[in-house]
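Intended use. Records like the one below are meant for learning the mapping from a protein sequence to its folded structure. Do not use them to infer anything beyond what is encoded.
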Amino acid sequence: MRRVLVFLLVLNFAFAYDVPVDCTQIFEARKDEILKELEVIDEQRQALEAFRASAQAAYEEGLKKLAQKEADINATMKTLEQKRKEIDDQVAKNDKILTQLRTMTTDKVNESYSKMKDQAAADVLSQMSRAQAASIMYALEPKKISTVMAKMDPKTASEITTLLTKGPPFNDDNESSIDTPAGSLNIR
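Structure written out for the chain above:
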C-alpha cells in the first residue's frame, strides 16, 4: 500500500509541473467575461430605468385624466343639481297655480250651484258621477245641501251622502279610473 501511495504522489507532481499555469491569461479571460456581464447588467439597468420612467409618465397621465374626469363629473353633478332645483321650483310654482285654478273653478262652480234653484241643481247633480256631485255639494252650505238632496232621487241622495260622510277626496267605487298620459293634467 505504501508503494501505491508513493507512486500516486510521484505521478501527481509529474503532471502538476507539466502544465504551466498562466494566471494572467485566466485573469484576462475572466476580465472579458466580467466586462460582458457588466454590459448586460448595465443594459438591463437602463431598460429598467426607462421602464420606470415610462410607467411613472403613464401613471401621471392617468392621474391627470382621472382628475379631469372627476372635474367633469363634479361639473355635471353641479349642473344636474341646479337643473333639479329649477325643476323643483317650477313644479312648486305649477302646483301653486294648479291649486289656484282648482280653487277658482271650485269657487265658481259652488257659487253657481248655490244660486241655482234647488230642483235644477238636484237634476244636474243627479246626472253627474257621484264623486263629482259629492265634491260640489261638499263646498255648499249645509242648508243648501239639505234642500238640494230633498229634491233628488232617494237612491242618488243616499250614494252622495255616503261619499260625503267619507270626506274628500271623493272617488266613485264603481267609476273606472282612466290612466292619463304623462304630462297631461287630469283636473276633476
